[in-house]
Amino acid sequence: KNTIKDIDLKGKRVLLRVDFNCPQFEDGKVSDATRINEALPTIKYILEQGAKLIICSHLGRPKGIDAKFSLKPVIAKFSELLGKPVAFADDVAGPDSIKKAKALKAGEVLVLENLRFEKGEEANDPDFAKKLASLADIYVNDAFGTAHRAHASTYGVPQLLPNAVGFLMGKEAEIIGKAVENPARPFVAIIGGSKIKDKIAVINNLIDVVDTMLIGGGLAYTFIKANGGKIGTSICDDESLQLAKDLMAKAKKKGIKFVLPVDTGCATEFKMEAKRVEFPSDKIPDNYGGFDIGKKTIELFKKELKNAKTVTLNGILGVFEFDNFQLGTKEIAEAIASLKGATTIIGGGDSAAAIVKYGCADKVTHISTGGGASLALLEGEKLPYVEIMSEKK
Length: 393
Ligand code: 3PG
Prior knowledge:
This protein has 393 residues and is of the alpha/beta class. Helices cover 36% and strands 17% of the residues.
């Protein structure tokens, strides 16, 4: 693919798609800036070339315009890390964006409001893609975290402008690609988090690649319920129950170890001070919800990890922001970090934040800024942007 070093950026208006979908505190402030930091080399390079930079990103999953999902607090952090002021447009390719993009001078930065405030983004609507593209002369994609999505800003716009990929795109694809080309075995995948539908869909292909699959986090309860367990008020995707059953049957048939939590840290309410009580994962009382893997499960997962030669952690194992429910994520992060001679890949915004929080960042092979995107690569899938971005001449 064309990289930013292959095109002349001087004096050009560059539209850069990044993934600033960072974990946030309740007040909106960024709680982990990994994704911003990882985008900085590309941003600085573009500015050094004397371009006028327009940055766009999504944040969360808003349904239309919703102040709770404004990129503003994220941009405050970005400006601090970049070390210079950054202009902000309070719309996406609307009048404010157009006016501010026109006024940009070489070396200046404008950030657009959350792309997902526009319905056309996720639908990859051609009119929206056209509006977005008209803000700039050149398109650059460095949003590895969103590389598994074919949205207007990642799939539509590059078809309308001369384009290139940024440094993070290149780095992620190379490191993850190498790790999974011929993975050392056993290959253990630990999958957690709460994006149940997304994760269940990828597990199907992951079963073909790994030797052992450890399931934790919010994802686990759909599997436990599918097995007939009682999960209380724990999150569950009832529409995916049959699929969960099919996946477990597939794993069994292939001889893949598919390990679910045997116990669970539970509480009657979802809040920081909630008291932790442990129950067997399939016998959670009606008024309790599961918020972390339990202590027996932690030991079970550690045993599976002991001899692993390739490990991927994708998704946190509990509500690690709450002190009483961080145990599973913390212990498993530390167990991964202590492995000797294994390739260890951490994927996704929350998992990266957890690895940083527990001081394990420099003890793993790679922290990917992509959750779903790194899983797609691990499965050997071709990412949508690859199809669309220009070939290097
Ligand atoms: C992520 O956090 O995995 C990316 O930012 C993509 O977000 P999405 O799953 O809401 O598309």
